[in-house]
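User: I've been trying to design a sequence by hand for this structure and keep getting stuck. Would you show me what you'd pick, starting by listing the structure so we're on the same page?

Assistant: Good idea, let's start from the same input. This is the structure you sent:
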């Protein structure tokens, strides 16, 4: 009991795993409880021999993991379902299945990090660094190839002579007296080490800076980031209009593009001929484009019943004799060029789509001007089909 002579503990060294496990059992049975065993590797059955209860570190992991998981769930609820609701793919704002991966990850992360911190700070008592066993011959042996046990003076049953004879009777190779270190605390860093760190940090950052910012700009390295060029919208002192962004030279034709030859001509004497074959797909597309672009002014069936309520001059019906007699090329010309109050649609509608609209207008005209002979024809067809 007496901590005289600054004695910390009595230690013994054994040379086989079986002997140290026997020794631990015996020490426990004798009623000592302030003792510990040091071995170079984990020994099966040692926990039981020493009478250790299971480690408390699992609780740290459990509670911190649960805390992490519930915290992040709450956080996601707050950000995504409460504070800043975003509608994503028709999911509810609190979309639990989508939150599971993140919850799982954060549970693991917080559990693992807090376990690590708890082990170091709580269980291993870092930064406490002057354990009496440090630097002793005992510790140097048991961390290599021998097995050691020690009983500290804090044990109520501590009796130096008795313990030594107990260890001897158990077959100890040697026994040792461990004294408390004279020094209360060892400093974590000594000056030389700190200076060394500063030297290394300054050296690496300094040489990196020199390499990347100076050395690599010495000729012949000329870097492409310093190019003589204009960036968009930059002023130019070279051109008279001071614009660096130039428009194409007059008459420039884009590759693969044939310009419309009658652009700007109000009453062309000749027009293009229709290059399309009115298939079902093409007519469907023409219908779609007609309803989008033409129907607001000309009506859904081209009867001149504008849907714009007079916001714009009404487009005329497209079922007049005049327009029925127009060639396809003329209709195409009017869409492409516009006519009086009607704007040009060459920028909104592609060439192919414009022809499809022309074909669809023909369908509308035929449908609105059906003749009796059409019915007869259909009848004939259906009888020949045997219906
Ligand atoms: C913003 C309303 C508006 C839209 C949209 C519009 N038009 Fe017109 N359209 C007019 C007006 C107004 C006129 C009469 C122009 C005039 O006085 O010559 C007209 C004239 C026409 C004519 C000539 C009629 C004639 O008697 O010479 C045709 C053909 C025509 N439109 C077809 C179309 C087609 C096809 C579309 C869809 C690509 C379309 N329009 C879209 C307003 C429109």
């Amino acid at each position: 009991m007496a901590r005289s002579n600054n004695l910390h503990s009595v230690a013994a060294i054994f040379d086989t795993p079986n002997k140290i496990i026997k020794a631990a059992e015996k020490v426990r049975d004798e009623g000592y409880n302030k003792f510990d065993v040091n071995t170079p590797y984990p020994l099966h059955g040692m926990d039981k021999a020493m009478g250790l209860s299971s480690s408390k570190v699992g609780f740290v992991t459990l509670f911190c993991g649960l805390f992490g998981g519930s915290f992040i769930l709450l956080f996601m609820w707050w950000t995504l379902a409460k504070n800043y609701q975003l509608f994503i793919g028709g999911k509810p704002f609190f979309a639990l299945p989508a939150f599971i991966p993140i919850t799982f990850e954060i549970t693991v992360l917080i559990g693992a990090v807090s376990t690590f911190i708890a082990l170091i700070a709580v269980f291993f008592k870092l930064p406490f660094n002057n354990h009496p066993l440090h630097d002793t011959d005992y510790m140097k042996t048991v961390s290599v190839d021998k097995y050691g046990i020690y009983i500290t003076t804090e044990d109520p049953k501590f009796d130096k002579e008795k313990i030594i004879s107990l260890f001897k009777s158990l077959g100890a190779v040697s026994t040792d007296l461990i004294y408390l270190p004279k020094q209360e605390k060892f400093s974590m860093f000594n000056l030389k080490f700190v200076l060394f760190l500063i030297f290394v940090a300054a050296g690496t950052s300094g040489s990196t800076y020199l390499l990347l910012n100076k050395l690599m700009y010495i000729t012949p390295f000329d870097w492409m980031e310093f190019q003589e060029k204009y960036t968009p919208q930059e002023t130019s002192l070279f051109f008279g209009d001071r614009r660096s962004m130039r428009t194409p030279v007059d008459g420039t034709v884009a590759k693969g593009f044939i310009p419309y030859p009658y652009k700007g001509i109000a009453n062309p004497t000749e027009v293009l001929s229709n290059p399309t074959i009115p298939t079902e797909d093409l007519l469907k597309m023409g219908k779609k484009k007609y309803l989008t672009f033409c129907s607001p002014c000309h009506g859904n069936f081209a009867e001149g019943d504008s849907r714009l309520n007079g916001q714009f001059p009404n487009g005329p019906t497209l079922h007049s004799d005049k327009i029925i007699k127009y060639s396809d090329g003329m209709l195409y010309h009017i869409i492409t060029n516009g006519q009086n109050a009607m704007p040009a649609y060459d920028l909104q509608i592609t060439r192919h789509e414009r022809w499809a609209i022309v074909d669809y207008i023909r369908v509308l005209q035929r449908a609105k001007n059906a003749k009796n002979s059409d019915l007869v024809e259909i009848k004939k067809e259906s009888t020949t089909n045997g219906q």
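That's my pick for every position. To get oriented when you compare it with your attempt: The pocket of heme C is lined by residues 293-294, 296-298, 312-313, 315-316, 318, 322-323, 331, 334-335, 339-342, 345, 357, 361 (CB under 6 Å). Residues 57 and 133 are 24 Å apart (CA to CA).
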